[in-house]
């Protein structure tokens, strides 16, 4: 957003850090004129942010910043000598929140909150947003997972997922969004942040519902002859015992069929069937 102000006296760096004095932090003297300039910039950028987020009223203004302990990061860009444009803003502040972890346990803590984040439409998708966010994180020596986000838009949530791998929300029952990673210890969080597979959580085998039920055995013999009892044995022992049991079943079936055939032959026309055919369709195993 363009303003008819010369910001060269404060825009020594691209990002300016402003507190409730409406002056850059570290600015050594009172300057009512500069305060008026910054107030006008904050009001205009706050209105633009409210419109972009479809809010009923802006959540960032000079008056609101003046009555708070929040910190506002203002990003500028010099387009020509003596001419600056304001690219975006990021408002941060500490708040005492009641937090619910993923187990439903409640705690009370002071949390650093992302209260407003806006990049002007003419500068979006050019890397300004991530540069502003990383500057703030480095300045406060924290990680993105440690933030609470106030009423994030879908665009902001996609931004956090894309650059910081934050996607799993923990419902807080209020306007603030907390991610599961907020409750993880540092070691685990660093391990997860190093991974690039964002879908790993969806690939794990469910342990509940119909998808968590025990799967059927692949071998018909295991189903017929007690595969569950043999689950803890090694494959060679299983195959030997399966073969013994199958042979016993075949012998029993052979004895029954032969006895049946002899009985039938006694009542038939005198033909003696000495080689009965066995139906082995129920005895397929992995060995065949």
- Taken in chain order, the helices and strands follow as EHHEEEHEHEEHHHH
**How many structural units, i.e. domains?**
2
* Structural class assignment: alpha+beta
Approximate shape:
elongated
Question: How much is the average pLDDT?
Answer: 76
Q: What features would you describe in this structure?
A:
With 288 residues, this protein is an alpha+beta fold. The chain has two domains: 15-195, Aminopeptidase (3-Layer(aba) Sandwich), CATH 3.40.630; 215-288, no CATH class. 35% of the residues lie in helices and 19% in strands. It contains eight helices and seven strands, in the order βααβββαβαββαααα. The protein is elongated, with a radius of gyration of 36 Å. The termini are far apart. Residues 186-217, 227-233 and 263-271 have low confidence and may be disordered.
Task: Give a quick rundown of the structure.
This protein is 35% helix and 19% strand. With 288 residues, the chain is of the alpha+beta class. The termini are far apart.
Write the layout of secondary structure elements.
Layout: E1 15-18, H1 32-52, H2 62-66, E2 71-80, E3 83-100, E4 106-119, H3 128-140, E5 148-150, H4 154-164, E6 169-170, E7 176-179, H5 186-194, H6 200-203, H7 220-224, H8 235-267
Parallel strand pairs: 4-5
Antiparallel strand pairs: 1-2, 2-3, 3-4, 5-7, 6-7
Entry keywords:
seven-stranded mixed sheet, single chain, 288 residues, alpha+beta, elongated, 7 strands, 2 domains, Aminopeptidase
